UniProtKB/TrEMBL annotation:
Membrane topology (UniProt): Multi-pass membrane protein
Keywords assigned by UniProt, alphabetized: Membrane, Transmembrane, Transmembrane helix
UniProt name for this protein: Amino acid transporter transmembrane domain-containing protein
Species annotation: Penicillium daleae
Compartment(s): Membrane
Length: 462
C-alpha cells in the first residue's frame, strides 16, 4: 500500500497538470502556478543541468579556501573532517529531494520550515536563507575583485573592481530561469576547474610557493596540527561553506522537469565535488605548506596567478550570479506567488523582478566592500548562515515526516535515524555558535593586521 502511494505521489509531482488552451500548453505547478508558453518556463531543467548547477553552487569560492583550512587542521585531520562534512551535507541534500517529493508546494528551505514550525519558523529561516544567498553573492563579488586585481596587476582601485563586478553580476542574475543559467554554469564550472588544476600542477613543478621566503625551502606541511579553537572551528566552517549547497537545492529541484532524477543528480554532484576538494586541497597544501594563499589561486607565483585568475573569471561570475539570482527569485516569489504576474510577461512582472535583483546586488556590494577579507568572510558565511540552512533543517525534516511512525514502525533503523536527526540539530547548533565566534575573531584580527585592505579600500587585495 505504501509503495503504491509513493508511486502515485511521484507521478503527481513529476508530471504537473497540463492542458491545452487556445492552442498553447498550460501547466499548473504547485509552486509557480499556471505556466504557459506565453511566459517563462520555470519547469524546464534536466537532470544533467541540475548536476552542473549543483556542482557550481559548491565548486567555486569554497574550494579556494580548502588548502588554507588543511593548513590550520593538518593534512590528515583536514581530510577526515572534510569527508565527515561531505557525508553529513550529502544526507542533508538527499533530504531536500525526499521532502520535496512529499510536499510539492515547498520551494525553499523556509517553506519546509514553515510546515514544521509554522509562520514564525518560516520567517526566521526565510531571513536566514536570504542573508545566506546574499552573502554568497557578496563573497563572489569579493573574489571577482581579487581576480580583476590579479589579472590587471592592480590596474584600478579595488573599490572600482568591486563595483564593476557587482554591475556585471546584476546583468547576468536578471536571467529569469535556471535552465538558461545552467548554460552559464557549464562554462563557469569548466573555467573554475581548469584554473584550479593549473595552480595544482604549477605548485607541484615549481621550487617554492610564491609567498615562501628566499633561500633553501622545504614544504612545512603538517600531517597533524594543533590549532587553537578559533582557527580549528574557522577551518571547519570553511568546509561547511564549501558544501553548503542545501539552500540552493530546493529551488533547483523545483525547476526540474522530472524531480525523480534529483537523487541521481545529487550523487553525481557530491562525488565530483568531494574528489575535487580532496585532490586540490591535498596537493596544493602538500607543496605549499603554511605559505598557501587564500584564495588558493595565488599560491603559484605572479604569472600563474594572473593566468589562473583570468581563466577563473567566468566561473567566479557564475558563482555570484547563481547566488544573486536565487536570492532575488526567493524575494520575487514572496511578492508574486499566487499572482498572474508571476509567470506572465507583464510590466508588473518585469518591474518587480528587476527591482528584486537590483536590491539584492546593492546589499551584496555593501557586504563585499565592508568585509574585504576572503577567508574570514567564507568562514562567517559558513558558520553563521550555512549551518542553520543545512544541518538543523535536515534533521527536522526527517523527524517531521517520520515521527508519526513511532508506534507501528519503531525498528532499529527508525531509532538510529531519530538519533542521527537529533545529532544533526545539536551539532549544527554547536558549529553555528562556535564557528561564528571564530569567524568574527578572525575578521577583527585581520582588519588590525598590517597590509590588510580596509573597507571600501583602493589597496590591492590580490
Amino acid at each position: 500500500m505504501n509503495e503504491k502511494n509513493n508511486k502515485e505521489e511521484c507521478t503527481l509531482f513529476s508530471s504537473p497538470t497540463e492542458e491545452v488552451q487556445h492552442g498553447a500548453t498550460v501547466t499548473d505547478d504547485a509552486v509557480f502556478g499556471v505556466i504557459s508558453e506565453d511566459g517563462p518556463n520555470y519547469r524546464n531543467l534536466g537532470w544533467m543541468g541540475t548536476s552542473i548547477l549543483m556542482m557550481k553552487t559548491q565548486i567555486g569560492l569554497g574550494v579556494l579556501s580548502i588548502p588554507s583550512a588543511f593548513d590550520a587542521l593538518g593534512l590528515v585531520p583536514g581530510v577526515i573532517c572534510l569527508i565527515i562534512i561531505a557525508v553529513t551535507m550529502s544526507w542533508s541534500g538527499y533530504m531536500v529531494g525526499v521532502f520535496k517529493l512529499n510536499h510539492r508546494e515547498v520551494y525553499g528551505i523556509d517553506d519546509a520550515t514553515g510546515l514544521i514550525f509554522g509562520p514564525i519558523g518560516r520567517e526566521i529561516l526565510g531571513i536566514g536563507l536570504s542573508l545566506f544567498l546574499i552573502f554568497c553573492g557578496a563573497s563572489g563579488i569579493l573574489g571577482l575583485s581579487i581576480a580583476l586585481n590579479a589579472v590587471s596587476n592592480h590596474g584600478a582601485c579595488t573599490a572600482v573592481f568591486v563595483a564593476v563586478a557587482a554591475i556585471v553580476v546584476l546583468g547576468l542574475a536578471s536571467i529569469r530561469t535556471l535552465d538558461r543559467i545552467s548554460v552559464l554554469a557549464w562554462v563557469g564550472l569548466a573555467c573554475m576547474l581548469t584554473s584550479i588544476f593549473i595552480v595544482t600542477i604549477a605548485v607541484g613543478i615549481q621550487d617554492r610557493p610564491d609567498a615562501a621566503p628566499p633561500g633553501p625551502w622545504v614544504s612545512d606541511y603538517k600531517i597533524v596540527n594543533s590549532p587553537s579553537f578559533t582557527d580549528g572551528i574557522s577551518a571547519i566552517s570553511q568546509f561547511i561553506f564549501a558544501y553548503a549547497g542545501t539552500p540552493f537545492f530546493f529551488p533547483i529541484v523545483s525547476e526540474m522537469r522530472d524531480p525523480r532524477h534529483y537523487a541521481k543528480s545529487l550523487t553525481v554532484c557530491q562525488t565530483v565535488v568531494t574528489v575535487t576538494y580532496i585532490t586540490i586541497g591535498t596537493v596544493v597544501y602538500y607543496f605549499c605548506g603554511s605559505y598557501v594563499s587564500s584564495p588558493a589561486l595565488g599560491s603559484a607565483g605572479t604569472l600563474i596567478k594572473r593566468i589562473a585568475y583570468g581563466i577563473s573569471l567566468p566561473g567566479l561570475f557564475v558563482t555570484s550570479t547563481i547566488s544573486t539570482h536565487m536570492a532575488s527569485k526567493y524575494i520575487f516569489l514572496r511578492f508574486m506567488r499566487g499572482s498572474k504576474h508571476l509567470t506572465a510577461n507583464t510590466l508588473a512582472h518585469w518591474a518587480t523582478w528587476l527591482a528584486c535583483v537590483f536590491a539584492v546586488i546593492v546589499v551584496a556590494y555593501i557586504i563585499a566592500s565592508g568585509i574585504p577579507i576572503f577567508g574570514s568572510l567564507i568562514s562567517l558565511v559558513g558558520a553563521l548562515l550555512g549551518t542553520v540552512q543545512c544541518f538543523q533543517p535536515a534533521g527536522c525534516m526527517w523527524l517531521y515526516d517520520n515521527w508519526s511512525k513511532r508506534k507501528e514502525q519503531r525498528s532499529l533503523q527508525w531509532i538510529f535515524m531519530v538519533c542521527y536527526s537529533i545529532f544533526m540539530i545539536v551539532i549544527g547548533t554547536f558549529l553555528m555558535v562556535g564557528g561564528t565566534y571564530g569567524a568574527v575573531v578572525g575578521i577583527i584580527a585581520s582588519l588590525k593586521a598590517d597590509g590588510t585592505s580596509g573597507t571600501w579600500s583602493c589597496a590591492d587585495n590580490s
